[in-house]
TrEMBL record:
SUPFAM superfamilies: DNA breaking-rejoining enzymes (SSF56349). One of its GO terms (biological process) is DNA integration. It comes from the Bacteria. Keywords: DNA recombination. It comes from Klebsiella spallanzanii. This is Integrase.
Length: 572
C-alpha cells in the first residue's frame, strides 16, 4: 500500500507536465492519499485496483463531502498530464463518473460567489493604489541608491566583532542619518516602517506587495498568475499616437499557457518598480551569475543576506517572494474601509437573492472583508456594466476557458452602478451616450433602407414589415434604441438584434447565427464568408478533425445560400 502511494506521489511531482506546484500544495496531499488508502483497506483492494475500477472509485468519492471530493478528483485528474509511459498505474476515465460530476456541479452552483467590491469602496482602493504607485515610481531610483549604501555599510559592520558593532559604530552608519541623507523620511512614514534594518526589509516587502496588488487591480489576474510573473514582463507599445500597456505571463488554471493582459500606466509602472527592486536584490548575491529572463518579478528579500543568512541557491533558481495577502493587507491602513448602508444597498442591487444581512462579515460599521480575488470579480462586473468591453474581450482579459465562466463573473452587472458615467468629461461617457445613436443609424441605413433582400428570423420580420408599408420613423427608432428596447450589432453574416449578451457563438462558430432568432442575414456578406471558409479549408490538413469541422460549417453556409437564392429567385 505504502509503495503504491509513493509511486503516485513520485509521478505527480516529477512526471506531470505543466507548472511546478509549491511545497505547501504538495504537503496538503496527505489527506487525499489517506482517503484512498482507508478505502482500499476497508474493502481489501489495492491502490491500482481502486484507480482502474469505476465502481470502486465512484463509491469512494461519493462517500466524501463535496469539498473533499473536489480535491481528490483534482488530484486524480492531474495524472492526465503524465505521459502514459510514466504513469505508475492505469486510471479509469474519472470524467465519466456521472454521479460524482452531478454532485460537484450542484455543489459549485450552491457555493456563494465571491462578492464584488461595492463601487464606493472599489474606487477608494483604486485611488489609493494609484497614489501609492505614483509615489514609489517617482522615488524608486533614490530608494535603491539608499539601499546600496545600507547594504554596503551593513556588510562592513558584520565584519566587526559583536561588541564593536555597538560601541565603535560611527554616526554615518546610523540608519536614521542615512535615511535623512537621501530625504526618504516620508517614505518610511508613508508605509509605517521603522527606521532600522528590520524596518527596511518590512518596507521592501510592503512595496513589492503594493506592486502586486496594483497588477491584480488593473489586470484582473489571479494571485498565482501575478506572483509568478517574470522580470521585465511589462511591455509598452505605441499605436495611433497612444501608449498601450501589456503584461506578459502565464495562466495558472488547467491548461497552463503563455498569456497577455492589458493594463494601464499604473499597472505597468508597478512592474517597473518591482523589476528594479528584484534586480537590485539579485545583484547583491555574491558569485551568482544568472539569465535575466529566468528571474521572477518579485524576489525574496532574504537573498539580501541582511538579518539572516541568504538562502542557498540550487540549480540557479531564484525563488519568488512569499507575499501572503492576509499578513500584508493588515499593514495597509487604507484597505480598512468601513461598510455603510449605501454599500449594502449596492450589493442588494447586484445580487438581490443573497441574504447580505445574514452574513456577519458584511455588517454595517465593519471593515470591508477584502480578498484579492474580489478585484478580479469586480473588474468583470463593472467592465461588463460599462458597455465598453465586449464579452469576448473580457473573457480574454480574465483568461477564462469559457464564455460561461466570464458570464458567471459578470453576473449582476446589469444592476450594478456605472462607474464611468458620472465623469461627463471622460471619453467613456461620450462613447456611451452616442453608442445607441450610432447603432440606430446603422440599423436604419444598413438594414431598414437596404436594397438587399434580408433573411434570418429578424431579417424576414423586417422584410414583411417593409412590404406592408410600415413607415420608418427615424426619430422613434433612435428613441427605442436609447430606451434599450432595440439593439443592433453588425456581424460577419449581416446583423444581430439581441438585447442580451450573445451566448450562441460561445460554443459554436458563426454558423450558429444562421438559426438564431435574432439574426439578420445578408447575401453579400454570406458569400464573403463562404469564400473565406473555402480558402481556410485549402490550408488545413484534410485528415484532421479541424478539417471535418470546418468542412461541415462550409456545407451549412452553402446550403443556406442555396435556400436564399431559391427563395429570392436568384441563380447561384
Amino acid at each position: 500500500m505504502i509503495s503504491s502511494l509513493k509511486k503516485l506521489i513520485f509521478a505527480y511531482i516529477w512526471y506531470r507536465n505543466g507548472k511546478t506546484y509549491q511545497v505547501k500544495n504538495i504537503s496538503n496531499l496527505g489527506s487525499t492519499l489517506n482517503i484512498l488508502a482507508r478505502y482500499c483497506t476497508e474493502f481489501n483492494i489495492t491502490i491500482p485496483e481502486l484507480l482502474i475500477s469505476k465502481q470502486h472509485l465512484n463509491n469512494c468519492l461519493m462517500s466524501l463531502k463535496p469539498g473533499t471530493m473536489y480535491d481528490v478528483r483534482r488530484f486524480l485528474l492531474a495524472f492526465n498530464d503524465v505521459d502514459n509511459e510514466n504513469k505508475p498505474f492505469e486510471f479509469c476515465d474519472i470524467k465519466k463518473l456521472t454521479e460524482m460530476n452531478t454532485t460537484l456541479i450542484n455543489y459549485r452552483n450552491n457555493l456563494k460567489q465571491f462578492p464584488p467590491i461595492p463601487p464606493r469602496i472599489y474606487l477608494s482602493y483604486i485611488n489609493s493604489i494609484t497614489s501609492d504607485i505614483k509615489v514609489l515610481f517617482e522615488n524608486i531610483d533614490i530608494f535603491l541608491q539608499f539601499m546600496l549604501e545600507i547594504k554596503s555599510k551593513y556588510d562592513e559592520i558584520c565584519k566587526l566583532s559583536h561588541n564593536s558593532r555597538y560601541i565603535h559604530t560611527p554616526t554615518e552608519y546610523n540608519i536614521s542619518n542615512i535615511i535623512k541623507k537621501y530625504n526618504l523620511e516620508f517614505i518610511f512614514d508613508y508605509f509605517g516602517a521603522n527606521t532600522n534594518i528590520k524596518g527596511i526589509l518590512y518596507l521592501i516587502n510592503s512595496i513589492l506587495f503594493r506592486c502586486r496588488l496594483a497588477i491584480q487591480v488593473f489586470t484582473g489576474m489571479r494571485i498565482d498568475e501575478a506572483t509568478n510573473l517574470h522580470i521585465h514582463c511589462g511591455q509598452i507599445y505605441h499605436k495611433n499616437g497612444q501608449n498601450h500597456y501589456i503584461i506578459n505571463g502565464r495562466t495558472t488554471k488547467l491548461s497552463e499557457r503563455e498569456a497577455k493582459w492589458v493594463t494601464n500606466e499604473v499597472g505597468y509602472n508597478a512592474t517597473c518598480i518591482s523589476s528594479k527592486i528584484s534586480l537590485f536584490i539579485v545583484n547583491q548575491i555574491e558569485d551568482f551569475s544568472y539569465e535575466v529572463h529566468n528571474l521572477p518579478l518579485f524576489v525574496r528579500t532574504s537573498y539580501l543576506g541582511i538579518v539572516r543568512i541568504s538562502p542557498r541557491i540550487e540549480n540557479s533558481i531564484i525563488l519568488p517572494a512569499e507575499l501572503a495577502p492576509k499578513d500584508e493587507m493588515k499593514k495597509i491602513s487604507w484597505l480598512n474601509v468601513m461598510i455603510t448602508k449605501e454599500d449594502i444597498a449596492e450589493l442588494k442591487k447586484i445580487d438581490p437573492f443573497r441574504a447580505w444581512e445574514a452574513e456577519s462579515k458584511f455588517d454595517i460599521g465593519q471593515y470591508w472583508p477584502l480578498q484579492t480575488h474580489q478585484f478580479r470579480r469586480s473588474l468583470a462586473l463593472y467592465a461588463s456594466r460599462s458597455g465598453l468591453v465586449s464579452l469576448t474581450s473580457l473573457r480574454r482579459q480574465l483568461q477564462h476557458l469559457s464564455t460561461q465562466m466570464t458570464l458567471y463573473y459578470s453576473r449582476g452587472s446589469a444592476f450594478a452602478q456605472d462607474l464611468v458615467s458620472n465623469d461627463k468629461s471622460h471619453f467613456a461617457a461620450e462613447y456611451q451616450e452616442i453608442q445607441n445613436y450610432t447603432q440606430a443609424l446603422d440599423y436604419v441605413n444598413l438594414i431598414l433602407l437596404s436594397d438587399n433582400k434580408l433573411f434570418g428570423t429578424q431579417g424576414r420580420i423586417i422584410e414583411n414589415n417593409i412590404k406592408n408599408n410600415i413607415s420608418i420613423d427615424k426619430k422613434e427608432t433612435v428613441r427605442l434604441f436609447k430606451l434599450g428596447q432595440l439593439a443592433y450589432t453588425e456581424t460577419c453574416l449581416g446583423g444581430c438584434t439581441t438585447l442580451e449578451v450573445c451566448t450562441q457563438r460561445s460554443t459554436r462558430s458563426l454558423v450558429s447565427c444562421l438559426s438564431c432568432e435574432n439574426a439578420i442575414i445578408k447575401k453579400d456578406k454570406l458569400e464573403l464568408v463562404i469564400q473565406a471558409q473555402t480558402k481556410l479549408l485549402e490550408k488545413v490538413d484534410v485528415n484532421s478533425l479541424t478539417y471535418r469541422t470546418e468542412k461541415q460549417d462550409l456545407q451549412l453556409l452553402e446550403k443556406y445560400l442555396n435556400v436564399y437564392n431559391s427563395k429570392s429567385g436568384d441563380v447561384k
